[in-house]
UniProtKB/TrEMBL annotation:
It comes from the Bacteria. This is OsmC family protein. NCBIfam families: PRK10738.1. InterPro entries: KH_dom-like_a/b (IPR015946), OsmC/Ohr_fam (IPR003718), OsmC/Ohrsf (IPR036102). It holds the Pfam family OsmC.
Length: 139
């Protein structure tokens, strides 16, 4: 896996993935940025959320669950002093579907957190990573 990050100007950078996709990263105005894109630490949380969501959706689909939506809301706390690493990360999954089994959702999240999501497993080496979920019954 490869990636490249190129400085544009001020505190703006463009990240290019090995699969050919790009994203702009920028800092807040107080750091010389223009607030044109996500912050690098936000990118870590987005990567975590994407990795975990991929797993949960795939596991639920393989379990024949009738899901129609899956969202993960992520909240994180960082250390007060440099390096301001994540100290706590909480992922709250909101799964919408028809007759979805809470046990299967719980199992999917656990498998993701403990076996499949490399981002979650890696970040859990530094921070406390917790999960919970809610189910919404679709009409």
């Amino acid at each position: 896996m490869k990636a490249r990050v190129k400085w544009l100007d001020n505190m703006s950078f463009v990240g290019e993935s090995g699969s050919g996709h790009s994203i702009v990263m920028d800092g807040p105005p107080e750091s010389g940025g223009r607030n044109l894109g996500v912050r690098p630490m936000e990118m870590l949380l987005l990567g975590l959320g994407g990795c975990a969501s991929f797993d949960v959706v795939l596991i639920l689909q393989k379990s024949k669950q009738q899901i129609i939506d899956c969202e993960v809301q992520i909240e994180a706390a960082r250390a007060d002093k440099e390096p301001k690493v994540f100290t706590r990360i909480h992922l709250h999954f909101v799964v919408t579907g028809r007759s979805v089994s809470a046990e299967k959702v719980e199992r999917a999240i656990k498998l993701s957190a403990e076996k499949y999501c490399s981002a979650s497993i890696m970040l859990a080496q530094m921070a406390e990573v917790t999960h919970d979920f809610e189910l919404i019954e679709a009409p």
